[in-house]
Amino acid sequence: MSTETEETEDLLRSVLVGLAAAVPDGSATSYRKEQARWRRREYRRRCVVAVLVLLIVAVVCAIGLMTLSNASPDTHVIFDNAIGVSRTPE
């Protein structure tokens, strides 16, 4: 059984050595370049999301202000005195 284990280890070692030889020498710089590229994409995505959120808030605020500015000052939404209920202090 030790012969099979040694053959398996030798085969695995030769495959891993061949795989390591196939890796280009600039892999350390390639990793840094890809990491920098990923960070730029992540930063850009976060900026786009932030701009979209600010744009949505601005549009909602503008719609609210336009609605309030077009409202009549004589009509009250919360307190409707048109019913004619008057309270007298006791």
Largest sheet: none
Strand count: 0
Give the fraction of residues assigned to helices. over 70%
> Could you report the average pLDDT, rounded to the nearest whole number?
83
Structural class: mainly alpha
What overall form do the CA principal axes indicate?
rod-shaped
Q: What structural keywords apply?
A:
72% helix; mainly alpha; 90 residues; 2 helices
Describe the fold and architecture.
The chain is mostly helical and 90 residues long. It has helices spanning 2-22, 27-70. The protein is built from two helices and no strands. The longest helix is centred in the middle third of the chain and has 44 residues, at 27-70.
In short:
With 90 residues, this protein is an all-alpha fold. It is 72% helix and 0% strand. The longest helix has 44 residues, at 27-70.
Write the layout of secondary structure elements.
Blueprint: H1 2-22, H2 27-70
